[in-house]
């Protein structure tokens, strides 16, 4: 019996090729493999934030596993995978702690004026007469949208900083130590800082809309480390320009990479280029999880990090 044939979906996953080729036959989608090679593919290695087209799945009748290298898998049509009997795996919670660190860093960077303060000093704005006051993190009211691995890790860090923590998600989790708000709008009204850490799908696209931003208000800070499509970006930009929202700190955008011109004249915002989970340690863990998912699948064993087993 020959080695299973895998296909790797995106050029950004090219560094995985040597590791995969040591154990599997591997082709790359960007090399435009012929139809007969596609028809023989048994597993697809995919970056889960990218949409996986139905016609590509149709071209791989032997496909039995979609192995997302990433933690996110929102680009995969799970209903189609169920229909075809295709297992779906992902990177588990490999980068949850790092994304939580980044969320806390974005909060501090904005609320304690670290990024703006750096610019202020470099431009010669610091004088003895003018000293900027910032807001303490202690006792700030933190609302977390989405209480999965990342949300819980953010809450644990915020608790150590003596912040008041609440959360909201579509399903209650009674075992959690923090209270769930009655609605997303209620959470926004009750928060000084709103952190978006939810999973994204078509049902919650744009859930952080103008009404939520208005509820957070002119003293409120929005932090997004979830997915760009969870926030209505045009509404966010208008709210910042109008002063209806106090500030934003954003690591994820819709689409990516974002157009820098879009943000050129937007006040009170700190931006990072989707680096929240991009640590050497998290990437190494995702690679190990990927190899574990592939090995278990072809051995007929339970997947270490299943989405659909």
Structure write-up:
The structure is a single chain. By secondary structure, the chain is α/β, with parallel strands linked by helices. Helix content is 32%, strand content 15%. It is built from eleven helices and twelve strands. The strands form two sheets. The protein has a six-stranded mixed β-sheet with strand order 2-1-3-4-5-12. Helix 5 packs across helix 7. The longest helix is centred in the C-terminal third of the chain and has 19 residues. It starts with a strand and ends with a strand. The mean pLDDT is 96.
Termini Cα gap: 24 Å
Number of DSSP E strands? 12
Number of helices: 11
What order do the helices and strands follow? EHEHEHEHEHHEHEHEHEHEEHE
Question: How would you classify the helix and strand content by structural class?
Answer: alpha/beta
- Largest beta-sheet details: 6 strands, mixed
Could you say which overall geometry the principal axes of the C-alpha atoms support? Answer: elongated
Strand order of the largest sheet: 2-1-3-4-5-12
Global mean pLDDT: 96
Q: State which percent range the strand residues make up.
A: 15-25%
| Helix fraction by DSSP (H/I, runs of at least 4) | 25-40%
Low-confidence stretches: none
Radius of gyration: 22 Å
Write the layout of secondary structure elements.
Blueprint: E1 5-8, H1 17-21, E2 25-28, H2 35-38, E3 43-46, H3 54-58, E4 65-68, H4 78-84, E5 87-89, H5 96-111, H6 114-122, E6 141-145, H7 149-160, E7 164-168, H8 184-189, E8 193-196, H9 210-216, E9 221-224, H10 233-242, E10 247-250, E11 269-271, H11 280-298, E12 306-308
Parallel strand pairs: 1-2, 1-3, 3-4, 4-5, 6-7, 6-8, 8-9, 9-10, 10-11
Antiparallel strand pairs: 5-12
